[in-house]
Design a protein that fits this description.
Helices cover 78% and strands 0% of the residues. The chain is mainly alpha-helical. The N and C termini lie far apart (127 Å).
Length: 259
């Protein structure tokens, strides 16, 4: 009886001691993790806000997009390259990769406007202005041409169609505003639709262009604008003739159905 009771007490003591050790272990582990986190924050200068890290994270990500696309691997690698704590990119870009693409497009648009100011496009003719701005906008993507290939594929996904159109409109709208367009009537929309066609076709041509200094792309751009100018001339001549459309359709109807 005595030995059995002593054995039972020993088990209880051991269980209590084990529970105590586990509690101490958890406390030590918690302290070590927090200290490591603090050291990591100091080491990585993470006193910067997520907003302040947007540009560095985007720049780092673009270096990996050409190889891994706009994937989680790319975003994770961007954090490592910048030297931030894991998860900071989700705070900087809550919208994920598509938000990073949006920011990159904004940077390219701003760079286009800044370069246009140095060229002084106001002295050029309207055709030359459009040519120069489209060229400047495409050239902003030259350092990231391989990444741009992957970006186009990503934007081609059905879930990203609206964003793709929004980015295109923002660019062509900015081009027209940069060259001083003040139209507010129906021409406001036709100008942007026409320029969207020119810009998109030239941009896609540039992606596949391997000629020196993109010479073939700029030749293609000149041809596209020449086609548009010829079309505009035809429209102008048609308007000057002042054709009575109601009379035209009436005569056509008589020929088809009789009087």
């Amino acid at each position: 009886m005595f030995q059995r009771g002593t054995f039972s007490k020993s088990i209880l003591v051991w269980e209590a001691f084990s529970t105590f050790l586990i509690s101490i272990y958890k406390i030590i582990l918690y302290v070590l993790i927090n200290q490591a986190h603090i050291r990591l924050m100091k080491k990585n200068k993470s006193d910067k806000t997520p907003e302040e890290l947007c540009d560095p994270l985007l720049e780092a990500a673009l270096n990996h997009v050409a190889f891994d696309g706009w994937s989680k691997r790319t975003l994770s690698q961007a954090e490592k390259d910048v030297g931030t704590v894991p998860g900071i990119i989700e705070l900087a870009f809550p919208g994920g990769a598509i938000q990073m693409i949006d920011l990159h497009a904004q940077h390219c648009d701003i760079e286009m406007v800044e370069k246009a100011a140095k060229v002084d496009v106001n002295k050029l003719k309207i055709r030359e202005k459009i040519t120069q701005l489209v060229k400047l906008r495409i050239e902003t993507m030259l350092p990231y041409k391989e990444a741009t290939h992957r970006t186009v594929s990503y934007l081609a996904l059905p879930k990203n169609h609206f964003t793709s159109l929004r980015l295109l409109y923002r660019t062509v709208d900015l081009i027209w505003k940069t060259i001083g367009d003040t139209s507010t009537d129906f021409n406001f929309y036709t100008k942007r639709i026409t320029l969207s066609s020119i810009y998109t076709s030239t941009f896609l041509y540039w992606l596949a262009d391997e000629s020196e200094a993109s010479r073939d792309t700029w030749t293609f751009l000149d041809r596209r604008i020449e086609n548009v100018m010829q079309f505009e001339k035809i429209k102008t001549k048609f308007r000057k003739k002042d054709i009575n459309l109601s009379k035209f359709w009436r005569v056509l109807g008589k020929k088809r159905y009789g009087s």
